[in-house]
Structure formats: structure tokens, C-alpha cells
Task: inverse folding
């Protein structure tokens, strides 16, 4: 790799983060003496090329080998102006260090483009050349759409020496330890490079099964809450009916206590997780077919070169891939089935919500009818009171002038039999009119003040500006509407 490679690296400079010590793994299966097999795992400084830990690998002494460099997620936060990648996508090395690794391990620069695309992908580059003059097979795989087990791998395979060299980026320390343990347990399979891919996908298969099982349990829990749990066995159905009757002898429970917001939120979450499960299954199934195809191709190539020890390895990997393929297919079908089951529950919830709304509307109508009857009775009582007041007012109108006249002229202000020299009208008559006017003004003023205060109290109690409209509130569950 020369100046052209450096120019390509310049286009991806924002992918490189702060440098850090890298972890390495080297596994060598010797040709004759298994006691001399190598399994080393540790840290090394990529900047010191002279201190790289790799041992010499010869086809005469080594039956199969695997070299892995792990790069963990970068923890240093970066602003959006620095890079559009999250911390887990940055390589913890410099451009020159990556160039050295790519040159020594025969890795493609297009690995950086795969990182930038941030998609789940598998690429079989097939044949390329390197400075070692051996035919090299190059492959890349990436899983970047999950929170855990995010990995990006570039891999080269020396078909002559049976040596696999890989750069694995994105795994955490715990995930690196788990992968290293799995490699140690399956070290007899390192003769074919897709073994590393199969181990990485194995975690995705297990995660998919776990997610499907969790979704299934959540759906069953929701079905039991809504009372729509399906039981297929007739004896179980009978037992379930008896238990329901013992628990609710007066009939099935109403759905007053159901939290529909919580249920719809859970069902939406379940549907999203199942959709993701379908995605992971559909995107990984073709990869397993590609792994088998590559293994068959490498088996034919090495068999043509006189190496016949890969048949057993290829058979084991094919069996392992077939198991994962079957598991992914089963998980895919299960996710589709559970999606339909969750959709049925969503429709059920919507139906229950509609029933609840109808019940509330009916009870509101009943309350309004009761209020109307009360208003009707009040109106009848008011009519009777108005009629009575009309009679009283009529009687008062008839008798008040006569009463006032009789009372007024019976006072001492008038003397209808005056003596000589006396006036018929008293000189104090003005006092009568003065007191009458003052009392009338005081009474009318008091009436106005009391009326206004009562009117404001009515407005405050009704909570309206004009005192004409009331405020009616309804509970969220099945219950009696309340008028505030």
C-alpha cells in the first residue's frame, strides 16, 4: 500500500479517535506436536511495530492459525463538528497505525467505508494479492444495528498457510473475553476463516431467541390482563373456566381497572421488538449461506493443493451454520406469529376502549337525563312559586293604596276637626317625608349591595363569567359522572 492508500485514508480521517493499547489474540495449531500449540491473549502497542507479538508461521510447522486484533469503543466524547460517528464507531488508533495493520494483515481499505456506512453487511472480496506472494481471501462483516455485540470485522485468509488475520472493532471488554473463550473452545475449527464469523453471529442468534421469548411472555401477561388468554387443551380450558368461576362467581370482571395507556405502550414496544427480530433474522440468514459457500470454495482450493484436513472442519462448521440457520428461521416465523398475536391484542384494546367510551357516554346521558328531570322539577316549583307570588302581588296591589291612604290620614299630622284658629295639616308634615325618603334610600342601597354580593357568589361557585354555564367533569374509569 502506497500513496494511493494514504489518499484513501485521508477521506476517512474522522473515523480515527484517540489511540489506546490494543488487545491481540494468536492461536496456532501445530502440524505434529500439539504440546507446542500457541494460544496467547494480551495487550500490545500498535505504534511499536518491532514489538508486535506475532510468531513466524510456516505451512510446514503450523496446521492452522488465527490472529486477531481487537479495538474497543472509544470513550472520548466528540462534538458533532468533529465527527458524525458515535463513540463506538471510532477506531482507537491513528491513520498510520491502521495502514500498518492493513498492510501486514492484508486487510482492505474499504473496511473504513464499511464503518462509515454503519450498516449490517457481509462482503466476500475473494482473491487479492499481498507482499507475501500467497493467494489471499478477504472478507468483511458488520453488525451495527444493535446495542450489544456491535462489531465490524475485516479478515484475510492465507489459503496456503491456513492463517486467518482479522481486525475486530466495536466489541466491549466483556464481549472480547466471551469471544476469546469461544475461540479457545473451538480452536480446532480455526482452519477456516468463517469460524470467526459464525461465533460472532451465534450471539445474535441467541439474542434473537431471548427477545422472542421475552415478547411471548409479555403478550401472555397482557392476554391475562384483558381476559383473552387462549388455551388450546380442552381439559385446561375446563380447568381455567372453573378457576375463573371460583375467582369471579358473579361473572367475568369488568375492565374498570385496566390501564389502557400502559397496555398500548407495551404492545407498541412488543411490536417494535418483534419487527427488529424479523429484521435481524432476515439479514443474517443470507450470511450463513455465504459462509457455507466460502467454506466449500476454500475446501476445494486447499484440496487441490494437496491439503485434505479441512473436510472435517468444513463439516462441523456446516452443521453449526445449519443449526443457526434453523434457529433463525424458527425465530423469524415465531416473530411473525407473535406480531399477529400482538396485533390481535391491539385490536382488542381498541375495542375495549371503544366499549369504555360508550359506557361513559351512556352514563353521561343518564346523568344528563337526571339533571334534566331535576331542572324540570325545579322549573315546576319555580312556576308554582311565581304563581303564588303573582297572587300575593295582586292582593298587595289591590290593598296597598287603601292601606297606605288609611294609615297616612290616620296620623296626627292631620286634624279633620280643627278648633278655631287651628290648621287642618300639622306643620311637622315635612318630617314624615324626610324620614320616609331617607329610609327608602337606605333600604334600596342595602338591597343593591346584598344582591350584587349574592350574584358574585353565584358566579364564583359556577366558575363562569356570566354564571350561566356549569362545569361537568367525568372520571377516567367506568363510574358516575361528577358535576363540580
Result:
Amino acid at each position: 500500500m502506497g500513496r494511493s492508500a494514504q489518499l484513501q485514508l485521508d477521506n476517512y480521517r474522522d473515523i480515527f479517535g484517540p489511540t489506546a493499547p490494543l488487545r491481540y489474540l494468536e492461536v496456532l495449531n501445530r502440524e505434529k506436536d500439539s504440546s507446542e500449540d500457541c494460544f496467547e491473549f494480551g495487550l500490545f502497542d500498535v505504534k511499536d511495530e518491532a514489538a508486535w507479538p506475532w510468531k513466524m508461521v510456516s505451512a510446514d510447522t503450523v496446521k492452522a492459525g488465527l490472529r486477531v486484533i481487537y479495538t474497543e469503543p472509544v470513550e472520548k466524547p466528540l462534538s458533532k463538528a468533529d465527527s458524525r460517528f458515535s463513540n463506538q464507531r471510532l477506531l482507537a488508533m491513528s491513520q498510520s497505525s491502521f495502514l500498518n495493520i492493513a498492510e501486514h494483515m492484508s486487510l482492505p481499505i474499504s473496511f473504513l467505508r464499511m464503518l462509515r456506512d454503519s450498516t449490517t453487511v457481509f462482503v466476500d472480496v475473494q482473491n487479492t494479492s499481498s507482499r507475501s506472494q500467497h493467494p489471499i481471501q478477504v472478507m468483511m462483516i458488520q453488525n451495527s444495528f444493535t446495542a450489544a455485540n456491535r462489531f465490524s470485522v475485516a479478515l484475510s485468509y492465507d489459503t496456503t498457510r491456513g492463517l486467518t488475520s482479522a481486525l475486530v472493532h466495536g466489541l466491549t471488554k466483556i464481549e472480547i473475553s466471551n469471544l476469546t473463550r469461544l475461540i479457545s473452545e473451538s480452536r480446532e475449527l480455526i482452519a477456516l476463516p468463517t469460524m470467526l464469523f459464525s461465533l460472532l453471529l451465534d450471539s445474535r442468534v441467541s439474542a434473537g431467541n431471548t427477545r422472542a421469548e421475552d415478547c411471548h411472555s409479555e403478550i401472555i401477561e397482557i392476554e391475562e390482563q384483558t381476559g383473552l388468554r387462549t388455551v388450546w387443551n380442552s381439559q385446561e380450558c375446563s380447568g381455567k373456566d372453573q378457576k375463573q368461576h371460583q375467582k369471579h362467581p358473579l361473572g367475568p370482571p369488568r375492565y374498570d381497572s385496566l390501564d389502557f395507556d400502559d397496555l398500548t405502550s407495551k404492545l407498541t414496544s412488543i411490536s417494535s421488538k418483534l419487527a427488529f427480530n424479523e429484521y435481524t433474522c432476515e439479514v443474517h440468514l443470507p450470511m450463513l449461506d455465504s459462509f457455507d459457500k466460502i467454506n466449500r470454495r476454500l475446501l476445494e482450493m486447499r484440496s487441490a493443493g494437496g491439503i485434505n484436513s479441512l473436510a472435517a472442519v468444513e463439516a462441523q462448521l456446516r452443521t453449526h451454520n445449519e443449526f443457526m440457520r434453523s434457529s433463525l428461521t424458527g425465530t423469524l416465523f415465531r416473530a411473525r406469529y407473535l406480531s399477529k398475536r400482538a396485533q390481535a391484542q391491539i385490536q382488542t384494546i381498541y375495542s375495549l376502549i371503544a366499549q369504555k367510551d360508550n359506557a361513559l357516554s351512556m352514563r353521561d346521558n343518564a346523568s344528563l337525563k337526571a339533571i334534566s328531570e331535576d331542572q324540570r322539577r325545579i322549573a315546576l316549583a319555580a312556576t308554582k312559586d311565581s304563581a303564588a307570588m303573582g297572587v300575593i302581588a295582586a292582593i298587595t296591589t289591590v290593598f296597598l293604596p287603601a292601606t297606605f291612604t288609611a294609615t297616612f290620614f290616620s296620623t296626627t299630622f292631620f286634624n279633620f276637626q280643627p278648633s278655631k284658629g287651628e290648621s287642618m295639616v300639622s306643620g311637622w308634615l315635612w318630617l314624615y317625608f324626610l324620614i320616609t325618603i331617607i329610609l327608602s334610600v337606605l333600604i334600596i342601597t342595602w338591597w343593591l349591595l346584598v344582591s350584587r354580593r349574592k350574584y358574585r357568589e353565584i358566579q364564583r361557585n359556577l366558575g363562569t363569567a356570566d354564571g350561566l354555564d356549569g362545569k361537568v367533569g367525568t372520571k377516567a374509569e367506568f363510574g358516575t359522572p361528577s358535576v363540580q
Summary: Strands lie at 22-30, 38-44, 62-71, 121-128, 136-143, 151-158, 163-169, 472-473, 482-483.
